Amino acid sequence: MIRLSPGEPVRRGRREWAVDTGAFVLAAVFSVVTSEPVVDNPAVSDARLAADQVAGALACAALWLRRRWPVGVALAILPVGVFSHFVAGPLEVALFTVAVHRRPRTVARVTALALVCLVATVLVRPDPHTPPELDVFIGLVLIGGVVGWGLYVRSRRQLLASLYERARRDTREAVAREMHDVLAHRLSLLSVHAGALEYRPDAPPGDVRQAAGVIRESAHQALEELREVIGVLRSDAGNGTRNGAEHPQPTLADLLRLVEETRRAGTPVDLRQETGGAADVPRAVGRTAYRVVQEGLTNARKHAAGCEIEVVVAGGPRRGLTVEVRNRLGGTAQNTTRSTSGPAVPGAGVGLVGLAERVALAGGRLEHGRDGGDFRLRAWLPWRA
């Protein structure tokens, strides 16, 4: 892992060692390849040429510190470059590093200083074979090229980081939706049956045993479904497909089982399926429809316990799949059930929000709210032939 804040220790992995070695070699090669005008210049003494080469070697060595102090390395090399040609290669690498790892304001200041040093270099070390204007132009191209390339690399890294963070956020939201869908349904069933035991201590032993059995079964199912969700999430994360194959997610074919569980909890449910066969519904569409019905039943048990629930699933290829869950609001049934089954099941208020996100991801639409004296939850999902 590389830490780029000033003063923090740098730990290089294989990739970082390869990149730093490549930068060192590239800087040295660039300086040597472009040194012919300096080496062949009779006005340059041997002592000055040797000092120039030593300065270039030290500048190349300083590149190993560029990850920790990119601005410092660039500022140290820039004034030396006015008098030494062999510093040109390390200077290009240093400017590139500043553009990659520092804010645009800092990059602009360092670049401006580099342009000033470029003009000073042409005045202090003029090339007898090249016009000064051409020297300045070549320098501008080199500086602009490495700085522009560095800014592009920086923006690309920021884009990838933002996409990675968005993917992490979407994954957390997906996990939250799955956990809510699985646990809210099962725990609401547990609350209904446990409330019945609490508020009817004089119930016949047979009813107590039956309620206790339903509680145990619901708890077992909650653990199983939670394990299924975790298995699918691990499979989606790239840990293989075995868990996903062993623990398939529910589809529209499991809707009758879901309704029967709600009926056994004492809530009357009228289910109508008009799809011409649940097996014909695509799995992804059926899974989303199942979650819509599950959330509708859970909300009805929380806020209108004992009231009859009407579930309608209709549609077909090309015209889409419509799922509607409707229940009465308030009234005698709700009050009676609460008096015998305990207080209303608390809710976090995020079920419908997560459901809307799920339906939107499937390309559908979700509507919910009061419809006269009823609460209606309605979803439309695309069904492609």
UniProtKB/TrEMBL annotation:
Keywords: ATP-binding, Kinase, Membrane, Nucleotide-binding, Phosphoprotein, Transferase, Transmembrane, Transmembrane helix, Two-component regulatory system. It is an enzyme of class 2 (transferase). This is histidine kinase. InterPro entries: HATPase_C_sf, Sensor_HK_TwoCompSys, Sig_transdc_His_kin_sub3_dim/P. GO terms for molecular function: kinase activity. It comes from the Bacteria. Residues 172-236 form the Signal transduction histidine kinase subgroup 3 dimerisation and phosphoacceptor domain. It catalyses: ATP + protein L-histidine = ADP + protein N-phospho-L-histidine. The keyword ATP-binding applies. Its EC number is 2.7.13.3. The chain crosses the membrane at residues 21-39, 73-100, 107-124, 136-153. PANTHER family: NITRATE/NITRITE SENSOR PROTEIN NARX-RELATED, NITRATE_NITRITE SENSOR PROTEIN NARQ. It comes from Streptomyces chitinivorans.
